[in-house]
Amino acid sequence: MARILRGDILWADLNPVKGHEQAGQRPVLILSPEVFNDRSGTVIAMALTSQPQRPGFPLTMQITSIALPKPTWVKISQIRTLSVERLGKRIGHVSDDEMTQIVEGLNEIIGEGAAGYRRYQR
Questions:
Q1: Inside any domain, residue 23
Q2: How many domains does the chain have?
Q3: Radius of gyration from C-alpha coordinates of the chain
Q4: What is the span of the domain harbouring residue 34?
Q5: Does residue 3 lie within any of the structural domains?
Q6: SS3 call for 87
Q7: Measured distance CA(91)–CA(104) in Å, rounded
């Protein structure tokens, strides 16, 4: 498999799942850096969706830095560690600015707890 870089969007097979996890063949955004991906055989990723999102939970952000076939949102609350064997074709790569915003959104959820999360919902 080709190098997998932080910020890449790739197809992934997310099955099997349980509960409210995102399922099926869908694009994911890679959060983990190349060295982690190469050495661990896994990636840390967030699920993407083309379904319009309502404000609030689950925390989402629209991807606009690359041309995708449909409007696309990253589901910041849907973070998973995946084997590279689950990954397929590369779709694109988000901008550094968008990647920074996505990581800031994740930090709002896990770094500052509920107070930070409420502030990000605006």
A1: yes
A2: 1
A3: 14
A4: 8-120
A5: no
A6: strand
A7: 23
Residue 92 domain-assigned (yes or no): yes
pLDDT in tens, the chain (122 residues): 679 999 999 999 888 767 666 767 889 999 999 999 999 999 999 999 888 777 655 688 889 998 888 899 998 888 999 999 999 999 999 999 999 999 988 888 887 655 554 554 44
Report yes or no on 64 lying in a domain. yes
Cβ within 8 Å of residue 73, ≥6 positions away: 48, 49, 50, 51, 52, 53, 60, 61, 62, 63
- Distance in angstroms between the alpha carbons of the first and the last residue of the chain: 40
Residues, the chain, total? 122
Q: How far is CA 36 from CA 33, 106, 112, in A?
A: 5, 19, 25
**In CATH, what number is assigned to the domain containing residue 78?**
2.30.30.110
